[in-house]
Recover the amino acids of this structure.
């Protein structure tokens, strides 16, 4: 334990930025540690990593870590990231967004980034709620759930972010929860090593809001919910729709190849420069 | 490469803008099609790859503005271009660029609004939006070209100012200047004065990302160069980290304003015609300045002592220049293709020292020399 906390501190802006803003028991921190572990394991230098985020609890993550960090605007992380990557393709560009960030206000950017296939690795921290603004419905809030903006119950159907991004053309899509940390790290590693636009959807508990709305009193109960409701892709393949209702399918959902925008542009530019 | 040295070329205004941008060092363009600015993206799409840059068509103007901020942070001089509806969508990110001090150039080729308005016709209705379109207190630099050559020249200057002050700079052109074609001779690249953002001269451990080095403009490293720092639209301390401490917030806001306002003497850009003995002065900008010059020449032939001052910088408002005009003129006429966005500023600076007349047209057609001349004759006395 001592060793592990020491290891993470190498990547934290400890002198300046702590304590962090997250509630005790929030799932975002688990993701942060997993991300740091994988970056360290792969061996990227701190200088080549750029973390870009939107606005929200999840999007506060970059300020705590010692990379090039860009805390952009609500929903628009991918637009900033696109500019960074195209201006300097040698950088490893990673975006971190909340579910509201990525699928509501930034939904258009999400599908176009996946379609365009610029090499950006994106993580969507899905806590099924707007955490930062106080527990309003998000585009992934389950139907019927009461929230501060749907006091009589949510009348809208939720998005399946992973399937949306798959349909839009992402070359790698994975989903897991912060309970399944070994798998979380595997998916982070795969997505970081994948060429092209990849997305990993990470279910994480918002203890302060979605937990309360779901009637789960503690982070432990919320993580037990993640454990009990997750179904692996392999197992899900043998189940029908009724059996899968309310379950979360985890694992690698898509892994394929398509032309990558920045690489194609690079080729074009080299041809033009030769002339 | 064949040298085009001093040879005349026939260029469209929007094309001259692209030539200026590339000459200034622009290597990243992101945009979304919109009349009357579309040609800028089309020329960029052809020319940037040849210059070793990148041009990308984004999904909308919000994304375009986000992308140029990202590219600028990664070290590329960046630009986008649009017209009214897209300019409205860019406003949140223009404020971000002010706050995070990201140099970039935004071209608004004005068409008549509000809303979809008259997509193919000129207007000057975005002067105040260029000043105050994004939320919150901020300073901004806005330039207005009145000819094809000036569109070229001011595009270079827009990049220079954006880089010098680390701030978004807006080029407020109009449909007429964007779409007209004129023969121009462009100076050879070697004769241009090109400015680049201040760069850190100390090792990363000593670099203070948002500290004041004395000029008000902190040196700016690019992502990937070893100066890892945090960029945010939140109020931040000198290290770039979010803060709510009043002393830190106040210091940041003061510096953001003063880095530009302290330099006001360098930001008085206008051209004066027939003003030495003028009793009356026409103050105009953009396409209207062209008609204004013709009108002033005709008025002179009639023996009226009228001059023209053509504004090239609209914001920050050239208080010193305008005060000089109010002191030397009996009457000032401000013709504009809006209901009086610059004339209000002239009146504010004037404070009653001379008479201010206005000529406003908002029907989508250009103000003609004849219209300005009649107004001159009416108010000259
Ligand atoms: C343009 C804009 N609209 C609204 C907001 C207010 N806002 C801040 S965070 C947020 C929602 C955050 O929810 P989510 O993206 O799911 O992130 P979480 O806090 O749950 O991690 C909203 C609506 C904003 N900052 N900008
Ligand atoms: S409000 Fe929810 S998402 Fe935000 S820090 Fe607290 S627990 Fe985490
Ligand atoms: Mg959320």
């Amino acid at each position: 334990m001592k060793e592990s906390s020491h290891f993470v501190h190498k990547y934290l802006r400890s002198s300046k930025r702590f304590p962090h803003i997250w509630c005790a028991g929030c799932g975002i921190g688990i993701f942060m540690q997993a991300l740091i572990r994988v970056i360290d394991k792969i061996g990227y230098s701190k200088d080549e990593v750029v973390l870009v985020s939107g606005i929200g609890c999840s999007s506060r993550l970059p300020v705590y870590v010692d990379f090039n960090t860009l805390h952009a605007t609500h929903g628009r992380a991918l637009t900033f990231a696109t500019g960074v990557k195209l201006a300097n393709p040698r950088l490893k560009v990673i975006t971190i967004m909340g579910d509201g960030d990525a699928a509501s206000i930034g939904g258009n950017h999400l599908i176009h980034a996946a379609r365009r296939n610029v090499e950006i690795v994106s993580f969507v921290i899905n806590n099924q709620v707007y955490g930062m603004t106080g527990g309003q419905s998000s585009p992934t809030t389950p139907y019927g759930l009461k929230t501060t903006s749907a006091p009589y119950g949510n009348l809208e159907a939720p998005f399946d972010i992973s399937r949306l991004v798959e349909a839009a053309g992402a070359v790698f899509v994975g989903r897991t929860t912060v309970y399944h940390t070994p798998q979380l790290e595997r998916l982070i590693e795969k997505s970081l090593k994948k060429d092209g636009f990849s997305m990993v959807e990470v279910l994480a508990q918002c203890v302060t809001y979605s937990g309360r709305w779901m009637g789960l009193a503690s982070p432990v109960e919320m993580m037990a919910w993640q454990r009990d409701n997750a179904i692996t892709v392999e197992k899900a393949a043998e189940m029908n729709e009724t059996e899968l209702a309310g379950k979360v399918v985890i694992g690698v959902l898509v892994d394929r190849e398509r032309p990558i925008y920045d690489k194609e542009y690079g080729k074009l530019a080299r041809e033009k420069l030769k002339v | 490469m064949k040298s085009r040295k001093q040879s005349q070329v026939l260029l469209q205004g929007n094309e001259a803008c692209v030539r200026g941008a590339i000459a200034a060092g622009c290597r990243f363009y992101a945009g979304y099609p919109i009349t009357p600015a579309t040609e800028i993206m089309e020329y960029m799409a052809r020319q940037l790859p040849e210059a070793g840059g990148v041009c990308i068509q984004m999904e909308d103007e919000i994304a375009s503005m986000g992308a140029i901020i990202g590219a600028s942070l990664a070290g590329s001089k960046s630009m986008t271009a649009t017209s009214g509806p897209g300019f409205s969508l860019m406003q949140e990110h223009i404020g971000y660029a002010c706050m995070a001090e990201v140099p970039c150039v935004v071209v608004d080729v004005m068409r008549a609004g509000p809303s979809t308005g008259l997509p193919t016709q000129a207007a000057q209705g975005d002067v105040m939006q260029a000043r105050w379109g994004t939320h919150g207190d901020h300073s901004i630099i806005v330039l207005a070209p009145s000819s094809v050559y000036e569109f070229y020249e001011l595009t270079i200057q827009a990049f220079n100012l954006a880089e010098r002050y680390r701030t978004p700079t807006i080029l407020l052109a109009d449909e007429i200047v964007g779409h007209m074609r004129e023969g121009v001779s462009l100076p050879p690249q070697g004769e241009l004065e090109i400015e680049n953002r201040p760069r850190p001269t100390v090792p990363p451990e000593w670099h203070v990302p948002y500290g004041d080095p004395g000029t008000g403009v902190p040196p700016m490293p690019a992502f990937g160069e070893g100066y890892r720092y945090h960029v945010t639209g939140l109020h931040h301390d000198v290290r770039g980290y979010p803060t709510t401490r009043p002393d830190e917030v106040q210091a940041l806001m003061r510096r953001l304003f003063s880095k530009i306002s302290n330099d006001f003497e360098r930001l008085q850009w206008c051209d004066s015609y027939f003003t030495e003995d003028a009793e009356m002065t026409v103050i105009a900008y953009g396409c209207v300045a062209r008609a204004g010059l013709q009108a002033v020449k005709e008025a002179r032939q009639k023996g009226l002592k009228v001059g023209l001052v053509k504004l090239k910088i609209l914001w920050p408002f050239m208080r010193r220049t305008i005060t000089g005009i109010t002191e030397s003129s009996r009457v000032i006429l401000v013709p504009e293709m809006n209901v009086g966005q610059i004339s209000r500023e002239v009146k504010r600076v004037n404070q009653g020292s001379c008479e201010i007349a206005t000529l406003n047209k908002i029907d989508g057609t250009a103000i003609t020399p004849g219209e300005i001349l009649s107004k001159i004759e009416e108010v000259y006395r």
Remarks:
- Chain A has a mean pLDDT of 95.
